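Lecture notes, part 5. Sequence design as translation. It can be helpful to think of inverse folding as translation between two languages: the language of shapes and the language of residues. The source text, in structure tokens, appears below.
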């Protein structure tokens, strides 16, 4: 049977951080299941709030809690926010305690000496560290903390920032590992490495990207920063997000993406003579065929996926890639390199997803017109989560331009694709990088070198602000970020002034 681990806390304010800490652990494995105690029991736990806790008293209280709560509660972790000390040494400062043989553990978020700035990382990762550490103690209660530093989860921590060493490696030493494997079954053996990878931020994530036409160049800038701290093994996107997803899935790095986008003349994708545009719109539903775009991305894919046919199928991409489009005959179309339509030509699937309404002529599949994935699903995060509930992710969100002087026609693409995106962003804010590319427009294909650099900078700033807010353990040069933001605001105001 899986390990069922109940978490209780004396502080209501800690519940959200605790949920944020364990929810990714629950997603990636099934052998250890974490949950917050029911409200009626949390109310009783809050009555245990004290100014100072002693080790033996805490263990005794947890035993009483289990007895009074009833039911089967084999493993319990109590989270405090006050000083915790040994019974025989009331002046000691313990980070946590456990009685693993009886299935009890406790840790405190108390900052022992604020002048030492002991919390150098965010609360969520701190809680996750202790949840995993005590989980492994439950697997084998014989494992003890050791004094010598081996970047092991079980190193004895005299100083809270020492936990950063364990967080950065996500490893356990050979001796501790050998003790654990004596208690391993197949499920535990599969789950433990995944837990450790989540602790160390090295568990591969999916990257989910919104549509936005040429504004998608900002994704490359965001990845320049995110790629320093996270690993991605799956890419999903709509329209501009689909283009970036395809290139990343083919094996391009963020630096290569920036170079590609800077070197590309996007006006070449407007591949119709101006006399043909009204005819195309009237008879074909769009101004431009998009053939030059497809040839462009097909050549880029072939350069990274050699040895295949003239045109590479989705299933031949190096990493899992999911692109979204729409069709009257099929509704939402998914081009998944490991699932639906994996045999579709990758350049064709990308072209399907970026059929900007009225701008590009829709292509056909199964005799039905295929339209831009942004029609109702411009930010496909909800779809991705429904299809991949176990996958951890970071999403890149391009905020809609806010410019009261813009014409209705120029804003049409933004308006038609904006549905309930804000609700999705707010519901997943800890995993969404918000990028403001204003005043660049979706179909502003004629970009100067300065405007391309501006978009890359927008992405970098969005990613750095996200890291500063939601990954406080990652050190951000605040002075540099402030300078980048000021420079970005100056350029943005300058572009707006020129348009007036």
């Amino acid at each position: 049977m899986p390990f069922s681990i109940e978490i209780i806390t004396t502080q209501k304010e800690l519940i959200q951080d605790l949920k944020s800490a364990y929810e990714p652990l629950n997603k990636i494995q099934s052998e250890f299941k974490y949950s917050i105690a029911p409200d009626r029991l949390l109310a009783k736990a809050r009555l245990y709030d004290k100014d100072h806790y002693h080790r033996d008293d805490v263990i005794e209280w947890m035993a009483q809690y289990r007895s009074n709560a009833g039911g089967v509660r084999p493993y319990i972790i109590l989270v405090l926010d006050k000083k915790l000390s040994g019974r025989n040494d009331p002046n000691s400062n313990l980070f946590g305690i456990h009685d693993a043989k009886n299935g009890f553990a406790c840790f405190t978020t108390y900052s022992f000496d604020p002048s030492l700035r002991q919390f150098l990382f965010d609360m969520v990762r701190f809680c996750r560290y202790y949840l995993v550490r005590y989980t492994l103690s439950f697997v084998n209660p014989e494992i003890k903390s050791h004094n010598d530093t081996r970047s092991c989860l079980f190193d004895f921590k005299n100083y809270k920032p020492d936990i950063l060493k364990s967080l950065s490696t996500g490893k356990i030493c050979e001796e501790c590992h050998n003790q654990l494997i004596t208690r391993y079954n197949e499920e535990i053996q599969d789950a433990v490495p995944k837990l450790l990878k989540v602790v160390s931020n090295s568990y591969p994530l999916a990257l989910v990207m919104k549509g936005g036409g040429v504004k998608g160049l900002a994704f490359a800038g965001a990845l320049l920063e995110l790629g320093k701290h996270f690993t991605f093994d799956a890419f999903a996107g709509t329209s501009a997000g689909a283009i970036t997803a395809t290139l990343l899935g083919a094996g391009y790095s963020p630096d290569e993406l920036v170079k590609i986008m800077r070197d590309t003349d996007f006006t070449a994708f407007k591949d119709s003579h101006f006399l043909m545009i009204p005819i195309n719109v009237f008879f074909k539903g769009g101004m431009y065929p998009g053939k030059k775009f497809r040839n462009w991305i097909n050549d880029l894919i072939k350069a990274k996926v050699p040895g295949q046919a003239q045109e590479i199928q989705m299933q031949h991409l190096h990493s899992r890639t999911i692109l979204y489009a729409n069709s009257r005959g099929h509704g939402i179309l998914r081009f998944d390199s490991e699932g639906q339509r994996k045999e579709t030509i990758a350049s064709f699937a990308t072209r399907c997803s970026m059929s900007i309404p009225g701008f590009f002529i829709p292509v056909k599949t199964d005799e039905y017109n295929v339209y831009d994935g942004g029609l109702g699903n411009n930010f496909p995060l909800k779809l991705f989560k429904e299809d991949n509930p176990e996958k951890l992710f970071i999403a890149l969100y391009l905020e809609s331009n806010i410019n009261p002087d813009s014409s209705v026609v120029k804003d049409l693409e933004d308006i038609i694709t904006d549905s309930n995106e804000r609700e999705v962003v707010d519901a997943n804010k800890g995993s969404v990088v918000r990028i403001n590319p204003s005043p660049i427009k979706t179909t502003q294909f004629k970009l100067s070198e300065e405007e391309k650099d501006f978009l890359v900078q927008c992405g970098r700033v969005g990613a750095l602000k996200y890291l500063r807010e939601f990954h406080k353990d990652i050190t951000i040069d605040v002075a540099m970020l402030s300078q980048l933001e000021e420079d970005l605001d100056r350029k943005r105001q300058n572009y707006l002034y020129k348009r007036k």
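The translated text above is only one of many valid answers, since several sequences can fold into similar shapes. The radius of gyration is 26 Å.
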